From TrEMBL:
This is Phytoene synthase. GO terms for molecular function: transferase activity. It is an enzyme of class 2 (transferase). Its EC number is 2.5.1.32. The lineage of its organism: Bacteria, Bacillati, Bacillota, Bacilli, Bacillales.
Amino acid sequence: MDERILQQCEELMKKGSTSFHKAFDVLPSPRREAVHVIYAFCRIIDDSVDEPEGAPYSIHELREHFMNLEQADGHFIWPALRWLFSSFPQLQREPFLLQMEGQLRDLTFTAYDTMEQLKDYCYLVAGTVGEMLLPVLRDDQSEAARTSGIALGIGMQLVNIIRDVGEDLRRGRRYVPLEVMEGHGYSQEELENGEVNHRFTAVIQELRTEALDWFRRGLEHVHTYPLESGLAIELAASFYAAILDAVEADGYDVFRKRSYVSDEAKLQLFQRTVVRYAGVRTAVV
């Protein structure tokens, strides 16, 4: 395998998410490189819908190439994926196809009425990533771990939805379920006007509670992973959950601000988690 191809996947991950890159950088090879490939492909899928003018392929072209992966060429992602499936033969292709199905939904389904609808969407675009990562992060096929991986992905997607309310509105999308808005007396008109008031804050707080519950479920079986994999998962979860605190610190103005976790805060989370895992390793040894 040409190392430059895997390096290109890593660079795409660094560019797309420094948090995820830092979290999964603690993994040994080849698990680490496999995560880079999975992230890179998911990033390309996402860009094909959200930023089609700058994407190398349309979502339909991606699906066609993926369905004929052995013959696909013209981009570094195809030999990288062939290496991924060859190196981790227990990895299934179904989650990748479902991921693309979820992204396709963004082209036609742009407003959600219920939490159940939103949960289904979050599974397709993010829960599937948990399924992709499972065979890479551990050697057994634990159903409990699979369920937790899906839950963590759903929680992370809910964080994305909270953080990106304004950005998504500008793209003509509303992921915040109408039933949640109506439950707190917040109107579509207020949303479109970007009004941040106590009703909107209550909407975001309900979604925050929902996200944290998925995070809790997502970490239930993290102790059953190899130590480095468990550490990576907890780091990724802590970095993402911290975005919710950043939203609160920004006064819930997700219309005009993109809340982020500072490098200093990430470092503190990193050190806190690594120290705890170092204690576990010492106890095991």
